[in-house]
Structures
1.
Amino acid sequence: LHLENDLRQAIAAEEFVLHYQPTVDLNTRALVGFESLIRWQHPTQGLKFPADFITTAEEIGLITAIDLWALQTACQQLASWQQVFPQCSQMKVGVNLSAQDLKYGGLVNEIDQALAQSGLNPTCLMLEITESMLVEDAEAAIRLLEQIKARGIHISIDDFGTGYSSLSYLHRLPVDSLKVDRSFVSQIEADPRNYQIVETIAALSQQLGLGAIAEGIETHTQLQRLQRLGYQLGQGYLFSRALTSEAAAALLAQEG
Ligand code: G
Ligand code: G
Ligand code: MN
Ligand code: NA
């Protein structure tokens, strides 16, 4: 109950912050963008991670307000970096969405506003959805995603392989890339079945003409195997953990 009440105040009290995990080109290691990851600076309990509050926020119907805050903030952040760091002009910022966001009728409008207010090019925005979000009303989800994709926004399926794989209509989904879940990547060396899953997802994305992104890359061996399988982009502690916006800006200044 305390958590619920605290959460209800958190947006107005400006207690949320976004951290930014670099996404890199696996072949060149060039920085190609960032995934935004929300954190909650709780007034008395310290920094909270999504696992501590996203489920509660969903239960009390607050997640869409939080995600829209993250959307606006991430768009503004990348747009402002683009003004300072020329190498950011082609980068993308990823924003995670929840199932409730797709049911909110004002989503497309809010996306348009976030882009207009920040001045960010739609092609620099990447929205991350999960397979499970597409199960309930697939036709409605497809129509919504088509509207989003028509703007040039990149849509990625996050945690791919862990959910209900809607292979029957995956080819109809207006998505741009599959982001293989980190649980498969982390076991790629230890467990041959995981290697096969990661290989199958790479082949699937190739056949569907989608990009393949790997997350949770921690070792050189994982990187080499993923490269060999055709993964173009990735994230993980081998490259960088999620950074504060100040640390991300310092990285950009240093890479410039
Ligand atoms: O931050 P961490 O790296 O612990 O992220 C854990 C999970 O929280 C990720 O799977 C991510 O998809 C989710 N998450 C992170 N930021 C957001 C956000 O702004 N909105 C939603 N809905 N989920 C998020
Ligand atoms: O849910 P999503 O997969 O979008 O969120 C990514 C989560 O994974 C975040 O909690 C992030 O901090 C974490 N993460 C990112 N890179 C790595 C990694 O290389 N190893 C591990 N164990 N966790 C990671
Ligand atoms: Mn994600
Ligand atoms: Na994930």
Note: The two ends are 47 Å apart (CA to CA).
2.
Amino acid sequence: MKEKLVVLTGAGISAESGLKTFRDADGLWEGHRIEDVATPEAWQRNKQLVLDFYNERRRQLLQVKPNPAHFALVDFEKHFHVNIITQNVDDLHERAGSSNVLHLHGELRKARSTRNYKYVIDFDGDMSDSNRDDQNHPLRPHIVWFGEAVPELPNAANIIAEADVVFIVGTSMQVYPAASLIDYAPPHAQVHYIDLNPAEVRHIRRKISIHSGKAAEILPALFQKFTS
Ligand code: APR
């Protein structure tokens, strides 16, 4: 039976595709206050600002492609049972061809009803105040905002609890509850942290192997190492 590889990904894995990360210099939040564009209060206060922010990000996403880091994780499926748990709202893992992708923080190319959280549809255009669900309630971006519950968290915790190997890729591990998922990995699991600037992750209370550099270079090299 194949060993289980669980990969926790963050914005850094998509950096080489041309999408900005959040907390690096010149990061996505730099031009915006989180409170203005990514909270339920922001949505109540100024829907158009929130819609504009996500419309712009959706347009950018449609112009970029998966990079060698995303493709390397597809290659790992030849040797491992791979589950990806991503904090990213892009769909680059799916476009690369990964089979099992769980989105903790929602998906940019989907919209959901403001009244019925189960009503979720594909959405690729610009979203406006006039977009409605089948009951004529307004749609909103299918994004988990700061201050909202993370509905996929229990599923993610169950997945990582089964891991033999864990990769943490391109995330500053500063946002909870996503960052706490590593605590669910079993003690025997090997943990590898792959990040351009892994300095932030000292708080992880277990032995980890740190790989400092670009995910698009390190993941293909790790694939060779694991499979040679
Ligand atoms: N390869 C690997 N890592 C990289 C690369 C790269 N090419 N470029 C940047 N990084 C690393 C940075 O060093 C940083 O540790 O990616 C990480 C990005 O961290 P953040 O910008 O904080 O993004 P992330 O951890 O995904 O943010 C988590 O916070 O803003 C919210 O909901 C949003 O899902 C997001 C969550």
Note: The chain has a mean pLDDT of 93.
